[in-house]
Input
Amino acid sequence: MTAASGLDPAAGVTAGVERLPLFLDLRQRRVAVVGGGRVAARKLAELTVAGARPLVVAPTVTPAIAELAAAGVVEWKSRRYTRGDLEGAWLAFAATDEPAVNRQVVADAEADRVWAVDCSSATESPAWGALRVPAGDGVTVAVSGGGDPGRGKALAAAVESMLDVGELPSRRVREGSPGRVYLVGGGPGDPELITVRGRRLLAVADVVVMDRLAPWPALATLAADVEVIDVGKAPGRHAMSQEQINDLLVHRARAGKVVVRLKGGDPFVLGRGGEEALACAAAGVPVTVVPGVTSAVSVPAAAGIPVTHRGVAASFLMVSAHTADEALARARQVSSDTTLVLLMGVKTLPAVVAGLIDSGRDPATPVAIVERGWQPGQRTTVGDLTDIAARADAAGVQSPAVVVVGDVVGLRARLLAPDAVGSDRVPVAVAAMAGDPR
Ligand code: SAH
Output
């Protein structure tokens, strides 16, 4: 190998020979991975993300690799490596735990002019894999630790955390590149409950289009010149119509902007995200959806209520209670051990609980209303179908709130260890529970 490359690779590391970083388009290309252990599994995960057609050569493989092989995502030759296994490959990884085999793979690759990475020895390896840190919108930071994987990992982790808080200038500077829209689920309001992908996309956005329920604190670290547009309803102000919002997204993207449409919860759960995605697609604007933590599940959790629980409820029905009839029509179709999760249900609460009793739900069924879940001022009001409307009225319950109907509400007392779940420390809930004979 040394003779073929004309270089002493060991000298390359020690004598400061510069290596050339490259980003390879591996889609549909054959990549050989020799070895079937932990290191090979990690490489295979990266290769499948990159769209390669990996071939694994190893007598035994980890369960994860076996699954990839069973799914047809990778091809697996279940035997030891032999000369010829690299045929047709563009790239090879020597990832066995036998240094001699790895060296042989590298030597064969060298003879065939295939780039090879020796995962067991930086000094023996013609090519090094980089640690990849995706920054969103196609931006990637690749890190090399100069042959010291621990050093590379520490550096990559530092880059990741800087990306996560928006401390790195990952926004575009070149004018004239095409724009696009990212429909990002912001979660229930706590800025830590947005996904990593969503957070990184915020850091690359030129324009952020928000509404009332989106996690506003997540914007604190945006650069000053990012355009932030609030399309949500605020008291005394007109909200934009859905059509105006769709037009806004399309126009900004057509002007070449990276647009993040930041929505509360998950964009495809009662949030009209589907309509926005369709409007972009119809206008020929590329649009990508980034899911989020929906309030339907996470807001009950913040109050110590699991929407399902073994032996209590095996299913839940999430339904819009924007109108009582709409909610009741659906609720009647499920059995009474199905948890009901009502969104947009504060105004219609009296009509909904009356209708549930009328349609045969046990009047003693516990009900919880969780306001402002995962946000400052989170508060839970608890009662049963007969008295929750009065209790909500007395407490002055307001939107946004999630209403949970079902026996799972009773688990709250046991699950709500201080600080264990959410920030539900408000005495109203405790008072309501204490005054409750159940
Ligand atoms: N796409 C959102 C739901 C939008 S509908 C999601 O997946 O969560 C708006 C309703 O969501 C509100 O009326 C309320 O019922 C609920 N909601 C959203 N965020 C909430 C929060 N932080 N606390 C309580 N309810 C919330």
